[in-house]
Amino acid sequence: MRIIRTKNYEEMSRKAAAIIAAQVVLKPDCVLGLATGGTPVGTYKNLVEWYNAGDLDFSEVSSVNLDEYRALPVEHPESYWSFMHRNLFDHVNIDPAKINLPDGNNMDAEAECARYDAVIKAMGGVDLQLLGIGHDGHIGFNEPSDAFDLGTHCVDLTEETIEANKRFFNSKDEVPRQAYTMGTGTIMNARKVLMIVSGRDKAEIIKKAFFGPVTPQVPASILQMHPDFVLVADEDALSLV
Ligand code: GLP
Of 130, 136, 214, 228, most Cβ neighbours within 10 A? Predict the structure, then answer.
C-alpha cells in the first residue's frame, strides 16, 4: 500500500487524475473502474480539462462503474448513470457502447448481477479501479458485514449511508434503500486500485481501515492486502495517522 499525501482536495484531485491519465496514455484501450460520490468530482474535472487540451484520448477506453441505485429511474439526476454523464462521459470522447453500469431498473437482482459480472469478465477485468470511501468504510456499496462479497450483488444500504447520501436528494425519504454493487472480490481483482479521500470527517475511518485489522466490518480494510493499492489523501483525511 502506498500513501500519497496532498495539501488539500484540489491537489488530491490533480494527483489522482494524473494517475488515471497515465493509465490511459500507457494503455489506450484500458478498462477503467469508476466511482461516484462527492470526492471524484474534482478528479473528473481535471481529466476533462486535459482532454480539452488535447492530452488525453478516451476513444478506446472502456468503463465499468462500481455501483448504481436500485429502482431509481436512470434519468433521475442522482442516478449514478446521470452523475457519470454529467461529470465525465458527456465531456470526453468515450464511446457510449463502452460505458457500463449496473442496470438499477432491472428488478431481477440475480439476473442483473450475473449480467454485470459477465460484462466485467468479458472485458478481462479492471485495469485501474477508482474508489472513494464511505464513513462506515464501505467501498462501492459494499457495506460492513460478516463476510466479503465476491461478485456483484444487491445490498440494503445502511442507515449511515442513507443519511450521508441524503444531501444529494430533496429529502431522506427520496434516497433509494437498495443498490447493485460490484463485489469486493472484483475490486480486489483490479490490477491497480486508486482510492481518493479528503476531509477531516474521513480521518477516523482512514485510521480504522488502513491502520487497523482487516475485517469485513470495515470493507475497505481488505485493500491492505492488494498488491498495487494507492491511497491519495489530503492532510485532513490523514490527520489521525
Ligand atoms: C457512495 C458511493 C461510494 C462513495 C461514497 C463516499 O456511497 N457508492 O462509491 O465512495 O458514497 O462518497 P463521498 O465521496 O461523497 O464521501
Answer: 130
Angle at the Cα of 71 (from 100 to 123), degrees rounded to 5? Answer: 15
Q: State the catalytic residue, choosing from 68, 112, 117, 136.
A: 136
Q: Identify residue 87 by its one-letter amino acid code.
A: N
Ligand 1 pocket test, pick from 9, 36, 131, 231 with the greatest ligand atom count within 8 Å of Cβ, gives 36
- The model's pLDDT over 49-94, given as tens digits with 9 standing for 90+, comes to 999 999 999 999 999 999 999 999 999 999 999 999 999 999 999 9
DSSP symbols for 81-137: HHHHHHHTGGGS---GGGEE---TT---HHHHHHHHHHHHHHTTS-SEEEE---TT-
What structural domains and CATH numbers belong to the chain? 9-121+133-187+198-223 (3.40.50.1360)
pLDDT in tens, 107-136: 999 999 999 999 999 999 999 999 999 999
149 is catalytic: no
State yes or no: is 67 an active-site residue.
Answer: yes
Indicate if ligand 1 lies below 6 Å from the C-beta of 161.
yes
